[in-house]
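Q: I'm writing a short explainer about Mitochondrial enolase superfamily member 1 for a general audience and would like to include a description of its predicted shape. Could you first generate the structure from this sequence?
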Amino acid sequence: MQENKIIKLTVRDVRFPTSLEQHGSDAMHTDPDYSVAYVVLETDSDAALKGYGLTFTVGRGTEIGWTRKRSNSAGDSSHSECCLGFMGAGGGQEEQMLKEGYPAYTTSCAWLGYTDQQLTQLCSEALAQGWTKFKVKVGADLQDDIRRCSLIRKLIGPNNTLMIDANQRWDVNEAITWVTKLAEFHPLWIEEPTCPDDVLGHASISKALAPLGIGVATGEQCHNRVMFKQFLQAAALQFVQIDSCRVGSVNENLAIILMAAKFNVPVCPHAGGVGLCELVQHLILFDYISVSASLNNRMCEYVDHLHEHFKSPTIIRNAHYIPPKDPGYSCEMLEESVQKHQYPDGEVWRAIEQQGKQ
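A: Of course. Here's the predicted structure. Afterward I'll give you a sentence or two in plain language.
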């Protein structure tokens, strides 16, 4: 096998103005611009072999990731093109995924900044498309949360699944009190109820909410497998939310998946953003086919934003992730999109700056 050397590393700050329409808004991020530090590794291969990778941000702070990646190429190579495959795959699970796909839930209907009219329209459209699992952003105002959860529960009916997500907004006691008052809407879980580093705080919340039948979901902000180990040992979460970019990429996420299986806790990954759905689909397929062989209480987040900017966009059919057919980790972006949205000099951002001056 011919060995190829990396001869060039390029990092670009790519941002999308999602804040203009309140896409992605939650209790902690009222006006996020979904963004990535986008990496391309070039080699001396005769076939012009390249590796692609990204790390998602909400705009502010992308330059920090950009600087770190420029100074640490090893961090980039862990995200470059690879294909997990179906290692040790059982034929039945693989066939099921190819035929039916992996169950997804939608966060696109209920961002915190959306109006009631938007909530109603988007939930109605999602139901018509076959969605049965919905997540609602909460945490800024209790009475507003009660009103919005009531509206969405009535729209989706008593038999569909509802989750709520506070994006770290509360302290421990506040989280218990707040979620108890939302228990009438029968959420499956409360996501990120408090500081994502507070293992024992999450354990207290989990214990308090267990009699209400509400689990705790967290993990998208956990920065390594040791954090997940402690959460699992402390029974501090009932749903493991890995993120395809947060920890040391594929290898470390596989370790977390294996630990979750040991503790019999379902993996329900965080996704959305820019490219996270494209990346994490490979991890959920590995989890089901090679580790858990179970879909009980398992689902993967889906946000219907920005997939058109990728060479191999995620395919959703009947509210399920359909396994990708293209090789690689699905994170190559379209060069035209990168150029238009590069910050701050891309065409899109120049136009926004010009409008602000008028």
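A: For your explainer, you could say: Residues 162 and 343 are 36 Å apart (CA to CA).
Q: Perfect, that's easy to follow.
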